[in-house]
Amino acid sequence: MRLPLVAGNWKMHKDHREAVDLVRELDGLLAGLEGVEVAVCPPFTALSDVARTLKESRSRIVLGAQGGYRAPEGAYTGEISPRMLKALEVHYVIVGHSERREIIGEGDQLVAAKARAVLEEGMVPILCVGETLEEREEGKAESKVRGQLESALAAWSSDEASALVIAYEPIWAIGTGKTATPEDAQEMNSFIRGWLAERFGQDTASGVRILYGGSVKPDNAAELMAMPDVDGALVGGASLKAADFAAIARFRE
Ligand code: PGA
């Protein structure tokens, strides 16, 4: 059985003080929750304080980051290395988010290199894939996602892939309030699992967690995660409110 993962992507929100307040409040609201893994991905400037807060309160919330460069160190002004993240006990790193691809201009090659760099530091990439509205309407959603998987995971072995988390995030559903239907999410997640099975074998494919992301809220979380191939959620906007995010994590209750 795959343990569901509910991960909060805080994007460019919360300074280090606000981040500590949010994670403390969240930790209180999650007391006693079993059978769901919960992660938060604060901005870089808050990681150290959030890491310390989680440790001090012996929280079960897992720390994630929103990115990192492809190299362990070097002359890359403005970048953060996966090694630095690892030193803060970061476990998950979001890679290939559509905002990085579309706004910052990260291409498939850089996404692939970043995913490997995260893996090589012993952390787990949350690899984001997804299509635009135009691509969906033209019937090209699956070929877009297949292309993103093929390029990001070209150099991966089956063993390596078994540690991976994938997030299907249709770009038209991110921050728009338009959620994919549970059936849309299931269809794509099952397509992704099928691709993983072809590429890495059935055993690996059955173990990989495939999340859905895009306007996940307390009132749609349960029906999305009830789908057999939706193993959790990557949550943006609703992860900034402790009560909403906790309600999503408690989707089974
Ligand atoms: P959203 O963002 O929940 O605000 O739509 C999801 C994401 O971009 O990861």
Give a quick summary of the entry.
The chain has 253 residues and is of the alpha/beta class.
Describe this structure in words.
This protein is of the alpha/beta class and 253 residues long. The protein has a single domain (5-249), classed as Aldolase class I (TIM Barrel, Alpha-Beta Barrel), CATH 3.20.20.70. The protein is built from 12 helices and 8 strands. It has helices at 16-29, 44-56, 82-87, 98-104, 108-120, 133-137, 141-152, 158-161, 182-200, 202-207, 218-225, 242-249; strands at 5-9, 37-41, 62-65, 92-95, 124-129, 165-168, 209-213, 232-235. An 8-stranded parallel barrel has the order 1-2-3-4-5-6-7-8, surrounded by 6 helices. Helix 1 links the parallel strand 1 and strand 2. Helix 1 (16-29) runs parallel beside helix 2. The radius of gyration is 17 Å and the shape is globular. The relative contact order is 0.15. The mean pLDDT is 97. The structure holds 2-phosphoglycolic acid. 2-phosphoglycolic acid binds at residues 9, 169, 174-175, 213-216, 234-238.
